[in-house]
Amino acid sequence: MTMTSDAKTAQLVAIEQSGWGQPFRLVQPRNLAFWVYLVGVGGGALALLRYFGPGAHFYSPALTGGVLLFGLYLVPWLLLLRHQNRYTAQPATLLAAAFAWGGLAATFWIALPANTALLEIWAKLGGTAFASNWAAGLTAPINEEFGKALGLVLLIGLAPRLVRGAYDGFIIGAFIGLGFQVFEDVLYVYNGAAQTFGTDQITSSLQVFLIRGAAGIVSHALFSAIFCAGLMWVLGRTPGERNVPRGVLTMLTAMVFHFAWDDMAGLSGGVAVLAILLPFVIAVVELVTLFYVARHAATQERIWIRMLLQPESDAGVIDPALLAAVSGLRKDRKAFRKLVHSRSRTRHLLDAAADLARELAHARGSETNEVAHARAELLRLRGVR
Amino acid sequence: MTDTAPRGWVPVEHRFLGLDRRTFAPALSVLVIALLLLYGLPGLNAAIPWHNEIRAGDVLDLGDGATAVPPVGWQLESGTLAGTGSVSPAALQVELATGGATITLRGTAFTGTADAFLDQVLRSEGDTPGIDGSRGTVTTAAGLVGVALAGTSPNGDVLDVAFKMATASGEAEAAPALLVRVRTSPGQFERQQDTVGTFLRSITPGAVR
């Protein structure tokens, strides 16, 4: 009895600390963060119109091609991020707000004017040869990483109970970065067409799509996911999660990756072999770091999900192996799959357990029809009844 | 009776001008950092003068061995001097500036003649105010032939010269194109005419392969 009561208390603590099940509202007229968000996104939209407006008609083949190609490019990204959003399951409206900040405010409101100024400052201080090798890498990691992360801070202001852990920062950061990446890609398509004064616009937009699309795998979404996870460790919004040295180091790592990616030519020093190998080496290091950060950022989430589902485990709704898999790492899910002997059945059970966790969070730990239904579904899949 | 506050309700002790004071910290931090990036960096940039003066003997790298001799004393604001880096002629961007005048060079891939390239440039820019004169020919010391178009507007004078950077006869159609654009403040073109003429004559295509 005490054990069950302790587990129930822990479940309520997990719901309270994680903020899971909290709704998100963007329009909050009494919240100053809402007005700043509006200024940023509105300012970005105006800057976008000013940038593309004058040449929109002449460069319409390139712009249309860019929007269509990078619109399609978004689909696999959204599927991947949806899969990664399994612990926190942030509301779609919050993630859309993050995407819009990245695409409009961070790109057009902040990065465009700030980058122009800082690039020129480096040319003034170091000369144009220095600037052509190093200015991009000394500019973008500062202006763009901070510009994007400001969106996360505003979302904390708009949803303080929902944006709590480092994993929240990781997921929201990835969406802000994805918005930035896609809008910047369209900007590059436009600039590419303008560089050739509009000759053969379709070919030029395809070229940009292939180059930027491939590079995008280890670009802004990755940088921002790492940077924003680091920022959440610095802010420490959940008990025991503040770790300033780790947070600062993580943020700096994202900035160094961004620097390395932008100054690849300078780093290779004109050595052809290095110029070919370096992108692959940097990409591997970035991906390893990304998984390392994701794993550490999700530690708290995994604890919460275990606390959330423990009463269900005590009641026999979830067996210990499924609880370990749904709240564990990849190796735990792999072990569970071996136990179940079926990939699809494993996925169904994990999804059903996640559904139950979500409904419990929505219901604030109380019994509702939705909770009962999710529980019944899980038992049905387990073959208990 | 319940004690649940209506959605969006802000307790009176937390209100300031109808806003929730508890939301000020994140919002104002974002606003301050954004304004620093938006206006602080351009302000700092404006306060730092250029110190990248062209010295006697400097040569501009236009890519693939093509060069030009920039006017001494002008500021090189963008572009690479020969021997300091590598440049692609199809993505060339050079900017030279002095009081009241700028010379920009833009290189790109273009199939066609210099005249057709200039047509394409004008088409891409819509109605460029002031460019309405008749076309002339510019021949550089290396024998490169360009098409020039001058114009005047209330904002100043503008001269566009289009080249095809062919290194051998018969290559002109496929060679990279170069646009040289000279802009001066009203009444300044005459003062810079000789300098601009010398600069244009110095443009040399890459060595014959």
* SSE string of chain A: HHHHHHHHHHHHHHH
In helices, the fraction of residues of chain B equals 10-25%
Number of strands of chain A: 0
Choose one word for the global shape of chain B. elongated
Structural class of the secondary elements of chain A? Answer: mainly alpha
| Broad shape of chain A | elongated
Counted by DSSP, the helix tally of chain B is 3
CATH C-level of the largest domain in chain B: Alpha Beta
Give the low-pLDDT segments of chain B: none
What do you see in this structure?
The complex is a heterodimer of chains A (385) and B (209). Chain A has 385 residues and is mainly α. Chain A has 2 domains: 22-284, no CATH class; 302-382, no CATH class. Chain A is built from 15 helices and no strands. In chain A, helix 5 packs antiparallel against helix 6 (201-215) and helix 7 packs across helix 10 (272-297). The two termini of chain A are 25 Å apart. The model of chain A has no long low-confidence stretch (mean pLDDT 91). By secondary structure, chain B is an alpha+beta fold. Chain B folds into 2 domains: 12-47; 60-202, 3-Layer(aba) Sandwich (Protein Transport Mog1p, Chain A). Chain B contains 3 helices and 11 strands, in the order E-E-H-E-E-E-E-E-H-E-E-E-E-H. Chain B has helices at 24-47, 114-124, 189-202, and strands at 15-16, 19-20, 60-63, 66-68, 75-78, 93-98, 101-108, 131-139, 145-153, 156-164, 177-184. In chain B, strands 5-6-7-11-10-9-8 form a 7-stranded antiparallel beta sheet. In chain B, a hairpin with a 5-residue loop joins strand 8 (131-139) and strand 9. The N and C termini of chain B lie far apart (92 Å). The mean pLDDT of chain B is 88. At the A-B interface, helix 2 and helix 4 of A face strand 2, helix 1, strand 5 and helix 2 of B.
